[in-house]
Amino acid sequence: MKSSFSDRIGSIVFIVSLVVIAVIYGAFAAWRNWFPAPQVELAQRTLTDIAKNWKNDYGLEPTRHLVDPGGADTDTGPDRSESGKFSADGYVLIAGLNENQDESFHVVRLFDNDGNEVFRWPVHYDKLDTEHEPQNVMLHGMEVMEDGSLILTFDAGNAIARIDACGEPMWVQNGAYHHSITRDGEGHIVTPFKDGVAWLDEDTGDVLKRLDIKEDMVPANGGMQQAMLDIRTRTPESASEKIRRLPDPFHINDAEPLRADMADAFPMFEAGDVLLSMRELNLITVVDPDTGRMKWWHYGPWFKQHDPDFEPDGTITVFDNATGSGATKIRQIRPSEQGREAVETVFTGSDQVPFYSWRRGKHQTLPDGNILLTEAEGGRVLEVSPQGELIWDKPMVWDEKNNLITTEARFVPKDFFTNGVPSCNSK
To answer: What are the TM regions of this chain, as residue ranges (predicted)?
Structure first.
């Protein structure tokens, strides 16, 4: 009897010891990111994603592309009817999802001043990439060409492509191109690629050069840039251990070259220098594309920002998501060689004009000084005046409860297209 009791006590002590050791190891594993912490975290994220988006992945409902309506009035609920009239003389392109999924999953729509849809480009992602399903990628970057073709990138996909007015590929370059696309005025496009930037020929899609943050920018300028760029790292346990970067340490979401016709407004830079946005560092910087040297940079006050733009008056405007605040802002800064910049808020969401996108989003300063805003996570496009007045508002409605994620809206003047409004002739 005593022997049996002792055995049971010994077994209990052994099991409790294993539990204590497992708990202690689990705590250290989570702290130090040891096995199996990364695997458990990945499994949790995967299960959560499957539970939320299984209808999307089986082609039943595009849940990955739907959001609660933006521009909501907290007292009366969102007004989801278009209001006002677009002020500038031209067209607005809006990238998003096709309501007729039998034609194509993604679509880019063209609207006139009165808000009428006058053309649409079907986007057949399955013709660009055979490895990813169209419903699991996000049409994000969009550049429009004078001949009526488009150049597009896709988050979570593996392609950048130029398509004609019928949606047929003119060229495709497979790879991790994402977020934004900008023309440099010299026949090239500039776009984020993995943890860096790529320059492509806009006519052929040929890759001309690439700039990698880890390989080219971190060691540039005598290594002085490492302190700025390697903030998101884990402290090594010993002198022999290498610095380990946290996942997605930079999240570059925009790359805009300084065009020659705007270079005089920025005497501290040169035509071809590239303006980068690194969301995870709350950093925008202007970089020499050949050496990776940062010529100018500024942290905040923007938080998780997107889409910094060179402006003709020598300022840079920034889409400040202000994640967590409930009110996205457009900020303005004038770079200087002395580092005495002052940041001004030129527009912010308010009770009168609600505007908030906790992630994604774009803006464009229009010829008359108004601002075209893409409220991505509200599924809404709006135009506001420099005084903060709402000029035009267009929710991208999917059904009675949801709007479509709207990744980019772009204004082009009336005479932009070489042959007038694009058309797709029957083939």
So the answer is: 12-31
Token pair recorded at residue 111: 């609207």
Please work out, in degrees rounded to the nearest 5, the angle formed at the alpha carbon of residue 297 by the alpha carbons of 218 and 407: 90
283-287 sheet: strands from edge to edge: 252-257, 274-278, 283-287, 294-299
Sign, Cα dihedral of 101, 103, 109, 115: negative
Tokens coding 166: 């019928």
Tell me how far the alpha carbon of residue 265 is from its chain's centroid: 27
Measured between alpha carbons, how far is 108 from 122 in angstroms, rounded to an integer?
7
**One-letter amino acid identity for 242?**
K
Closest CA to 73 of 83, 65, 64, 63: 83
For residues 248-277, average pLDDT = 97
* pLDDT-based confidence at residue 385 (cuts at 50, 70, 90): very high
